Amino acid sequence: MLDAIDRKILRLLQVDSLIANQALADKIGLSPPACLKRVRRLREAGVIERMTAQLSPDRLGYPMLTVARIKLDRPSEKAMRAFEQRMSELPRVAQCFTVAGDIDYVVLIRSRDVAHYQEFARQVLAVAPGIRSYTSEIVLAVPKWTSEIPVDEA
Predict the structure, then answer these.
(1) 29: left (phi over 0), alpha (psi -120 to 50) or beta
(2) String of DSSP letters for 69-120
(3) In Å, what is the CA distance from 56 to each residue of 65, 146, 153?
(4) Which of 30, 102, 107, 128 might form a disulfide with 35, Cβ 3.0–4.6 angstroms?
């Protein structure tokens, strides 16, 4: 169970995961040791899975985001595991979602430009065993992108 203090900690860490423990404790109204103990408990409980830096795709040369919708030939457990393993190994694959409906996966792929994505599609998607078909949509704008999870009061 998360109490109100845990939720405040989580909200603040989502905005700035590099906040110093002293500053976090001051904002929450706890002593630094009590605050650190709570953060450690949240990590150990798996509520905080990991702390990461959100990088700028534009500044790192990967401004283009493409949504690939993939249909497997036969979505057996073995085929799905193999596809998921392959996607997890590719650094340009930002996200891979198993979905219900007419397709099996939605994959978000980072690229430098259209030619760079075409190279990925030809070398990975077009030749991957088990893929029946795929469609691609180039993202024109990203009005919202967040990794934050709502941390509502109980």
Answers:
(1) left
(2) EEEESS--HHHHHHHHHHHHH-TTEEEEEE-SSS-SEEEEEEESSHHHHHHH
(3) 12, 13, 31
(4) 30
Q: pTM of the entire structure?
A: 0.87
Examine the domain organization and report whether 30 and 94 are in the same domain.
Answer: no
User: Domain holding 14: CATH number?
Assistant: 1.10.10.10
Contact partners, residue 148, CB within 8 Å, separation at least 6: 14, 15
Three-state SS for 131?
Answer: strand
CA 41 to chain centre: 23
Q: What is the pLDDT of residues 116-133, one digit of tens each?
A: 999 999 999 999 888 999
Whether the Cβ atoms of residue 81 and residue 74 lie closer than 8 Å to each other? no
Residue 105 maps to a domain: yes
For the stretch 61-116, pLDDT in tens is 999 999 999 999 988 999 999 999 999 999 999 999 999 999 999 999 999 999 99
